[in-house]
Amino acid sequence: IDKCDKELVKIFERRLNAVLDVLEYKRKHALPIFQGQREKEVFKKVNSYLQNDEFSNELDLLYGQILKISRQVQSKALFPFNIIIIGFMGSGKTSVGMELSKLLEMKYMDTDEIIIKNTNMSINHIFEKFGEGKFRELEANTLEDLQNINNTIISCGGGIILNPKNIKLLKQLGKIIWLKVSPNEAYNRLLGDSSRPLLKDDFSLTNLTNILEKRLTLYENASDIIIETDGKNFGEICDEIIKNLLKCDSKI
Hints:
By secondary structure, the protein is of the alpha/beta class. The chain has helices spanning 2-28, 36-49, 56-78, 93-104, 111-119, 123-130, 132-145, 164-173, 183-190, 205-222, 234-246; strands at residues 82-87, 107-110, 152-155, 174-180, 225-228. The protein has a 5-stranded parallel β-sheet, sandwiched between helices. The protein starts with a helix and ends in a 6-residue tail after the last helix.
């Protein structure tokens, strides 16, 4: 078994080096980096190599992990920084962040969820009991605590850009993606959602538009990349983010 393990490690290392070589080739020739169809073909091909069909489920599990690790290695090489997602409520930050996390095999965090966990209180409750100012302070504390993380996708609360200190902390953390959404689109997406404290007393298109318009310049000034989200599904938005990130300078 020791001999097998030694050979496995050598082959595994060789495969990861090959993954990086292929990655460099793709970058040089402007080819798509992450190809889901190609992964399906790999699964089919490796199963044809198996001599004992009794181990086919185990082989699927093994190659599932190998392909995840391969994506992770590629992501580290391509994006040696955290990916920060900002935007107005209803822009899809959480859903896009989670989808992007799966595609790139990067860790995922949500600043609102961190605050909820640390305070054991809902966002609505924090606003009601302590006010918006206290919540913005908690956001800043959260960003300070995240300064040493890496290879992570971070979705932020919609108003995180209202505090200038937060913008500075975000820029130190990584590349900032603004998911831009129109008032009408945000309103339609938020219908029936009672978890938004700023809309609790006036859930109207007029109120939502007023809040959004006051933030537009802040979002734009904070962002490295702007993605229009109206009429797009999460997969399309993620593809657009990746394409834009590939054009970015790797330095923060």
